[in-house]
Amino acid sequence: MFFASDNWAGAHPEIAASLSHHATGFAAAYGTSDLDRAIEQRFNEIFEREVAVFFVGTGTAANSLALATINRPGGVSFCHREAHVIEDECGAPEFFTHGARLVPVDGPDGKMDPNVLVREIERFPADFVHHGQPMAVSITQATEIGTVYAPDEIDAIAAVCRSNGIPLHMDGARFANALVSLDISPADMTWKRGVDIMSFGATKNGCWCAEALVVFDPEKARDLPFIRKRAAQLFSKTRFISAQFEAYFADGLWLDLARHANVQAQKLKRCIEQSSKIRLAWQPQANEVFAVASRETADRLREKGCVFAPWNPPRSLPRPLEKEEVLMRLVTSFATTDEHVDRFADLAI
Amino acid sequence: MFFASDNWAGAHPEIAASLSHHATGFAAAYGTSDLDRAIEQRFNEIFEREVAVFFVGTGTAANSLALATINRPGGVSFCHREAHVIEDECGAPEFFTHGARLVPVDGPDGKMDPNVLVREIERFPADFVHHGQPMAVSITQATEIGTVYAPDEIDAIAAVCRSNGIPLHMDGARFANALVSLDISPADMTWKRGVDIMSFGATKNGCWCAEALVVFDPEKARDLPFIRKRAAQLFSKTRFISAQFEAYFADGLWLDLARHANVQAQKLKRCIEQSSKIRLAWQPQANEVFAVASRETADRLREKGCVFAPWNPPRSLPRPLEKEEVLMRLVTSFATTDEHVDRFADLAI
Amino acid sequence: MFFASDNWAGAHPEIAASLSHHATGFAAAYGTSDLDRAIEQRFNEIFEREVAVFFVGTGTAANSLALATINRPGGVSFCHREAHVIEDECGAPEFFTHGARLVPVDGPDGKMDPNVLVREIERFPADFVHHGQPMAVSITQATEIGTVYAPDEIDAIAAVCRSNGIPLHMDGARFANALVSLDISPADMTWKRGVDIMSFGATKNGCWCAEALVVFDPEKARDLPFIRKRAAQLFSKTRFISAQFEAYFADGLWLDLARHANVQAQKLKRCIEQSSKIRLAWQPQANEVFAVASRETADRLREKGCVFAPWNPPRSLPRPLEKEEVLMRLVTSFATTDEHVDRFADLAI
Amino acid sequence: MFFASDNWAGAHPEIAASLSHHATGFAAAYGTSDLDRAIEQRFNEIFEREVAVFFVGTGTAANSLALATINRPGGVSFCHREAHVIEDECGAPEFFTHGARLVPVDGPDGKMDPNVLVREIERFPADFVHHGQPMAVSITQATEIGTVYAPDEIDAIAAVCRSNGIPLHMDGARFANALVSLDISPADMTWKRGVDIMSFGATKNGCWCAEALVVFDPEKARDLPFIRKRAAQLFSKTRFISAQFEAYFADGLWLDLARHANVQAQKLKRCIEQSSKIRLAWQPQANEVFAVASRETADRLREKGCVFAPWNPPRSLPRPLEKEEVLMRLVTSFATTDEHVDRFADLAI
Hints:
Strand content of chain A: 15-25%
Number of helices of chain A: 14
Structural class of chain A: alpha/beta
Mean pLDDT of chain A: 97
Low-confidence stretches of chain A: none
Order of helices and strands of chain A: HHEHEHHEHEHEHHEEHHHEEHEEH
Strand order of the largest sheet of chain A: 1-7-6-5-4-2-3
Largest interface: A-B, 56 and 56 residues
Oligomer: homotetramer
């Protein structure tokens, strides 16, 4: 029962097969091969507009270079208090922006409250040089705690960005999981709502290593080839990323894989709702389920072979932990089997 | 006839098979799986000592993080004038070191002249704060122009480093090619000669994406986990790199692949020596052959399907180009077939 | 009535006279003149030990270079939530450390609560690379809100630092004001309590531009000459800083000036305690007085010529503002006259 | 006989007097006082157009922030091989631009040859991401070796910049000396010739510490307040810089001081031309004289109290040094007395 993280899974067989298929022959390096161009074109189709796409190696790279692209001296970016960029990237966003800061914004369910966002932005009045200047807002979709911004919630954040002249970034490490959860189109979840730049993650959803930085207005990406190369993120054999994306997008595989993961998460959710020993921390909407149990129960689950991550209770936890209770994160993926879920269900009753 | 670069090749079938083999199942992420540990152990065996190994995604990352590891304020690194770090990495080494500079050192055959190196280092007297302070020497093995430092040449550079208290870095993007060219052990080509830290490249020699930073004194690598993560080079599914290295090292595959590439380069060399239209720019020792021809000959080769890179004549070119002559770089790899070489031979006569 | 800031004052006549005295003649540049050496020696005497001293131009420079000196990759520094480094330096500390982060620590009276500090440090377990690693603790003495860490309060913070192996920095922009408030020696307020490195400010206390970075273990300052020069903080005519320090330290002028400022602040405090319209926000201990009044009262004070800074109510404000109340900061300095204070007293009744 | 550097002088009495004059009273901090505004207006008058002016503390700061203002990812700046930015700033320009590189350009008399500049720029073709992208050209006026770009020489460099879309920076650490040497207006030596941004130095010409960054198109300076503050170069008591500039510009003092220095340099030149023991290295045009003598002569001069800097012979030295000859730099300033020059003359015969 591997629920530790979606990055404990390997690669979907179609992804592996595509890589092997493209292992032979010669192809231009550094993103200039026919296959690379074809995948860039696929991104245009998926987003229903011309976009600028830059493959990178990690989600941290995508997020950091997104912020580097819209960087400003003394810049301040705003993200949810529990966001990956501020909590789990070892300062990479600050490093690649030469010290631009991240300000945590509170909000329930792992999502920024737009009113709190407004108040935080107001702390940085134009021309008060001592505080710095607003530079970006970053939302995570799906969020770090398995919830999903509804379209009108993205609208509300985007409106704040627009009225303050601040670009909006979306960390889409689990983009596909959010997409199938909302059942809308990629365009409807991003640029049509005001997202300017995004980190498009595929690694957690069945690839080995396939991340992309997508800029919706290609004009604004003019320095990105240099930003990426200087950041050591221009791969020589780019076909090994393109080949993964080729299979990922073929016949809607990516959406199928995300749907599978989300369905398994919903099954876990129902197990927990019916359990007398474990309760849901909040309602899961994508492929992460957070649950509360006594330390004893958690230990027993672990002894029985259930691999999960203990989680620091976030500020926004709706109901505080009781003494001796712990918070557990259970993540599903394309590779989560019914058998794993069923075994968990047996243990959780 | 693809001689543009060794990174135009894909992956060797054994590498691809290993990846597919490890596609299934669950494994701990971020470099903590059993497979990751096993590969680290393989590096110890290969280098005949305990080393610290850090997988990264690109050769530029390996070089840049090597310099970042031994970084100093106002630091100055010394490398050959034609080295990859100074010519072809878009300033990544300067970026990751926050502005540490690279000083070009001249020398014949693409190799630093140790006497010139001494003179360049002397330009930075201790305590003259205005110039900055020496921080690293970096050699490329095999060099950017297909030559190889002989063991005693490495000794001479290492002696300069030692007497100045400067660490020695080796850019081993084509490490295996140099190794089989010299027919010595990895230990004998590196730490036994005074190399402190190296970029171990496997991508050009049959992998898709497998690079490693090797620190010979693990004590000096204590901050590297943070340096790598902050640089967005810690991959989540590290098994996709480990799996490549597993096959790469199995049964000496890596040395076989490098030998094949070198042999094909020697064949090209002999074709050119016998050609009346093309001449060698200098003697190749690894898997790169540089040749001089009239523009007309070069164009005809290209028309006939020979893909190669035009090359800016380096300062150290032994015999200057005649008017209308051009310099061509021909690179062989594990994937270079006899047929390609034979067709080139036919055209070159 | 100028209470806007202590940096609205000019220079004390003795400081100006010393500068004019040293205007003539020739002296070695870049910190190597006899006068520079003599001032460095004065610092040794003042701190009762050999220290390494580096003149810089601004308090922001001193703080930023202090953190740059003890910088670590993925580094995290801890400071009070209202500290100057985190609130008012436009990201300079993050810039000079290439992205090392500042984590706000809560505590009453503008001072870090050592227990909260412990909990914040515990959020960064050794070897959990994703969060980063603790790198420094920074306290401000006197604090940003005019309070002063008592000796045992510094001891408590220093104990946390020691047990976690983290160096302790003191931002002494108002060092002299704290010193005379506590009536202890510079050594007793710093290295004898566990402070490793400090920003020694003289600008706010009667100089034009005289700041210094003091490292208590000179061995740890070996790279600082390069850090400072690379940061564009090595002045050519260093005598213009040394001359200020010469007068500043002569006959205890610096302590007299700080005492004067503190006395004036105490007078303001008593006015406010006796006022029916204004109340103290908290007890002032150095040369800053924070007071609460209705917006109407504040406006009237301003109309009558009282210059002060409106202040965002900090989280640690003991008694929340009533509706229509505002917080005012009143800062005294060596230049604050009795007349100014008396006029304020008249208005405040 | 102090000819070591113009920064061995102190401050002109008028400068010192102005500082003392402004020592009293209260003034708004951080560049917002009436005096600060008045000096900014003086810069507009001096340059005959509206400019954006930013005071900083050192010439290295002015140069580095100028490059930071026009920074680009993977950026490459071009300057003369002997320029201060590339030789004597400990990597500060690289640091403040996060690794943008400086490429040395050769040319006689310490001045870039525009044809060589063209060839160097051509090494960085647009879209060849591996090399980086051209970002700035920087000229020094007067040059590091005491020569001066003639107006048509600036035109030629500016034409190269324009045709390549690269901004032109002027390092004016000795701006006034060049100005009086050419006897043209500040506008004619800068923006009317195509200079976009400049470092305006006054420290070497009679101030203690007064440097400014001047941007000729204020629109392009919008981020500079944040760039400067983040670089720790925003002084709180800016009046101490403004007061220096007030006296510096009053009644053309700055031009008088530069003329004095240049006249003294011409006297040194004539001494040397008449000397049998010393010869001119090249023709001085501003306030620096470079001379060649036997080591014995140089030692004797030093013994007799002549303070000068030994200088590494630049590549562009017209006539190579004989064995046992050394190169000496003699710098004059506002403070160089006739007596010093006469004593030198006596010794030099």
